[in-house]
């Protein structure tokens, strides 16, 4: 059984110039105790993916399953640490 399943995720943003596709048909699984890194150039969708996994965003299409449950929004079973965490405090 996988700990996390990302199934055919697509996420689009509406902008003043029209729709922008940040992620298209992304799928992968993560097994328990497996370590995963998300690497890519600026603007490739890394932060969008992390925000989807955390439940901060809802995918345009596809689904995310973590621990056997669909991610439908924010939850206490997930957390995220931002790169500039020191800036969270005044």
Question: How would the blueprint of this fold be written?
Answer:
Blueprint: E1 4-15, E2 18-30, H1 46-54, E3 61-66, E4 69-70
**Sheet with the most strands?**
4 strands, antiparallel
First-to-last CA distance: 42 Å
* Total domains: 1
CATH topology: Rossmann fold
Cα gyration radius (Å): 14 Å
Q: Work out the oligomeric state of the chains in this entry.
A: single chain
Helix-and-strand structural type: mainly beta
SS strand fraction:
35-45%
Q: Spatial order of the strands in the main sheet?
A: 2-1-3-4
What characteristic shape results from the CA principal axes?
globular
Which bin fits the share of residues in helices? 10-25%
Order of helices and strands: EEHEE
The CATH architecture designation is 3-Layer(aba) Sandwich
Question: Can you describe this structure?
Answer:
By secondary structure, the protein is mainly β. The chain has one domain (4-88): Rossmann fold (3-Layer(aba) Sandwich), CATH 3.40.50. Helices cover 10% and strands 37% of the residues. A 4-stranded antiparallel sheet has the order 2-1-3-4, covered by helices on one side.
Provide a brief overview of the structure.
By secondary structure, the protein is mainly beta. It has one helix at residues 46-54, and strands at residues 4-15, 18-30, 61-66, 69-70.
Name a few traits of the molecule.
90 residues, 10% helix, single chain, 1 helix
């Amino acid at each position: 059984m996988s700990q996390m399943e990302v199934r055919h995720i697509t996420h689009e943003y509406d902008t003043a110039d029209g729709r922008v596709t940040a992620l298209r048909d992304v799928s992968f699984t993560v097994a328990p105790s497996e370590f995963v890194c998300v690497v890519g150039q600026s603007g490739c969708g890394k932060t969008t993916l992390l925000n989807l996994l955390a439940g901060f965003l809802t995918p345009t299409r596809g689904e995310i399953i973590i621990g056997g449950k669909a991610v439908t929004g924010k939850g206490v079973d997930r957390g995220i640490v931002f790169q500039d965490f020191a800036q969270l405090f005044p």
